[in-house]
Write a structure and sequence with these properties.
Elements (H helix, E strand, L loop, with lengths): L2 E4 L5 E3 H4 L22 E3 L22 H17 L3 H17 L7 H25 L3 H27 L8 E5 L5 E4 L16 E3 L5
Antiparallel strand pairs: 1-2, 1-3, 4-5, 4-6
Helix pairs in contact: 2-3, 4-5
Length: 210
């Protein structure tokens, strides 16, 4: 009997306790804690003795667009809020609103979005995490852990939406954690954020926009 671990929230599916081999669970089975797809689970492994090869970084500078600046300022605002720096948070929110208004409406579809998410998971986070480890930047390493988990649940939800269509969102709500950005689909927010462990009142309901 094996144990399978959710790569997003850490929930452990113990085949011995559950009585059903993980591979025999239906394709539509999801994590009971965070709602991730079955594909987000991996078999529990013993720690590897050989460290993974480092990711090579490129030193090119990139000019950020208005949308990227809006997202950056929004994240900085939330970081300031966590440290009770209300004045700084308000200034970053003002900047985020400005860049949001200036950003062009992105053109693309579901497949484009999923491709960008995969690029972040396969290239972006490994590169950033390697760079942070080289300079012992624990803050950035923690951001990588949270960010990668949030991105994985986004990928999982989009895959379910692609499979089920609009029926996936019928008679339910979409909630976002205001601390780490974790997305949850359900009538009520989770009792504890699976990523950053904050209580349900830290979640906001995502309202539809025309």
């Amino acid at each position: 009997m094996s144990k399978w671990v959710c790569s997003i929230c850490g929930y452990v599916y113990d085949e011995e306790k559950e009585g059903i081999p993980f591979e025999q669970l239906p394709d539509g089975w999801i994590c009971p804690l965070c709602g991730a797809e079955k594909s987000a689970f991996s078999q529990e492994q013993l720690p590897a003795d050989t460290p993974a090869a480092p990711v090579q970084l490129h030193g090119e500078m990139k000019e950020l667009g208005a949308g990227e600046l809006a997202a950056l300022c929004s994240n900085l605002a939330r970081g300031c809020e966590k440290q009770y720096k209300d004045r700084e948070a308000a200034l970053f929110r003002e900047l985020a609103d400005f860049f949001t208004a200036a950003a062009p409406v992105p053109q693309g579809d579901l497949e484009d979005l999923m491709a960008l998410i995969q690029k972040d998971l396969e290239e972006g986070y490994p590169a950033l995490n390697t760079a942070a480890k080289e300079v012992s930047d624990r803050g950035t390493q923690r951001i990588c852990v949270w960010g990668e988990k949030v991105t994985k649940i986004q990928d999982s939800l989009l895959r379910r939406y692609r499979k089920e269509g609009e029926a996936f969102l019928q008679n339910t709500q979409v909630w976002v954690c205001t601390v780490c950005g974790f997305l949850f689909v359900g009538e009520q927010p989770p009792q504890l954020c699976p990523v950053c462990k904050v209580p349900p009142w830290k979640f906001e309901k995502v309202e539809g926009r025309r």
